[in-house]
């Protein structure tokens, strides 16, 4: 028998005045080539209509939307020697998510195909993109104006607007989403009624309406404010893992924790958990012993926030991981950065998840756009730590922050990287790198200025920095790209 959502969905689609570009009614037409073209057309038309999904329904008459039943059996349909759904996935590019649902209605048997809307580029069948014009399926290339509009709708589409959980009641939304935390973080009074709560969640695209007075929890809402991410099947692997090792390799784990709460509602707990595992130094002051962090807290906070915000959400089975070793901390997130690693400090950040980034900035979880990593570098220099390393490994972004080490024990590569980062930081404040400023960064005495001169020559030879004014070497240095 039909589920409650299937009944509500069928009733809402039958109530439409006419066949829309994102809905196709059929009786028994099971020609697989026709089905493939219609899927392409409906996936594209759904995105054009700002819908997350489109539908093909067998068993409902086209002209009056009466339920007449169908003999179509998608599970028994084949093309060549391949099952229908496998063949369709090979012929469609990119293949949308296809959900064939077969159920009995009191008036007849129905086959419902739910099709996810196009995302990256127009969905093609057999290398041709299709679109619905009225109730007709036609080649997209024949309608250049429509194609331009479709591309404009595809460009801002993001993973955040996808559905994490479908067809949930109002009570279930409030049970699954930590809405008090949302209102606290956006600094908005908690409404005294459900309508006010749902109005705000809807406005920030944390939820969306589904059929039958029910709701869809969107990926953005679940990921930022889910009470438990493991309750959302597609997000369970996006929990943040924190692992502390006993030695400088991964052979023996000392402690392990997971942050299963949403990234926004659980951010304070996450940072406290990380800082609680990080080593600290004991400093004896004039009267009292003081315990001071080895790593600047603002750097840890910003790097963790960046790992959450800039990860590639489309990479399944992987989430952010924070690994703590006695001599370093490594923060890794899925997906290579959209900017060159060497330019992450100075270039405005580019994120795949703009809605999440904007909302987390509104909630003061991360720095304003373009002012985060420079503060990381500034705090690292203040603590006179070795320079952090930004590394791309196997489609992952990894940031390595090293524990305190005197200049004499830094490697040649670390000295050059620190020099480059110092030059970038000075450039961003309209200053120049000088021998004196680099001595201060490394904690080198003035009488050892010759050591710094050698580093400047090496960094220049490596094309990391250059003289700001070749005619006046005392004018200082700037990054080579400046």
From TrEMBL:
Protein's name in the database: Putative HTH transcriptional regulator
Organism per entry: Ancylobacter tetraedralis
A Pfam family hit: HATPase_c_4
Schlafen AlbA-2 domain sequence ranges: 19-140
Regions crossing the membrane: none
Top-level taxon in the UniProt lineage: Bacteria
